[in-house]
Amino acid sequence: xxxxxxxxxxxxxxxxxxxxxxxxxxxxxxxxxxxxxxxxxxxxxxxxxxxxxxxxxxxxxxxxxxxxxxxxxxxxxxxxxxxxxxxxxxxxxxxxxxxxxxxxxxxxxxxxxxxxxxxxxxxxxxxxxxxxxxxxxxxxxxxxxxxxxxxxxxxxxxxxxxxxxxxxxxxxxxxxxxxxxxxxxxxxxxxxxxxxxxxxxxxxxxxxxxxxxxxxxxxxxxxxxxxxxxxxxxxxxxxxxxxxxxxxx
Length: 249
Prior knowledge:
Layout: H1 3-6, E1 16-20, H2 25-36, E2 40-45, H3 48-55, E3 64-67, H4 73-80, E4 88-91, H5 104-132, E5 135-139, H6 152-172, E6 178-184, H7 193-196, H8 199-208, H9 217-228, E7 239-242
Parallel strand pairs: 1-2, 1-4, 2-3, 4-5, 5-6, 6-7
Helix pairs in contact: 2-9, 4-5, 5-6
């Protein structure tokens, strides 16, 4: 179902949206959804290759793409300086390094991107969000709730995203800024491609998911749009699972 069949096509007319990690997967689906609902959207990728690939795809017409390393505070400030206003921030930038995250240096780098990077962007964007009475949607994970033996850094970072979301929601409510998170279940994205391609690993995932399938990035984007919309104006500090029922089992 196109996003405009579920929401008014003018829902975000005149609003400005920044999506980190928005050149593929869930982030890109969010960028397309906000664009289709009238917003002015900037989506970032970590490299020029990612930016170019997304910008050259005709389906992404109307979205502005930029390079941003969320570990670089100066680069974040420089990007935000381009905006006269900022209504919605979606933090979707993230990395995963299966099996090698037990190395403390790799562990630290994953945390630097997924967790500290999210905080850097939130902090740098706060004043513009305050002026717009805006909102933040962070991307959490099923590993916000569970441990991951192959991905201790990713799991720790996503657990931290859950607590960061609640903490900023409480701290920024007086400024009129709402802060929420989405916890995607098992979604068919490049990040999960290795799992999708391995029947021994994908079968237990699907058997535990009551809806019996992988989710799509567009289904996650629908939840992000809801949390950023006026329909959620009394929602802050929430972590919304979009998981096909995975957490119920």
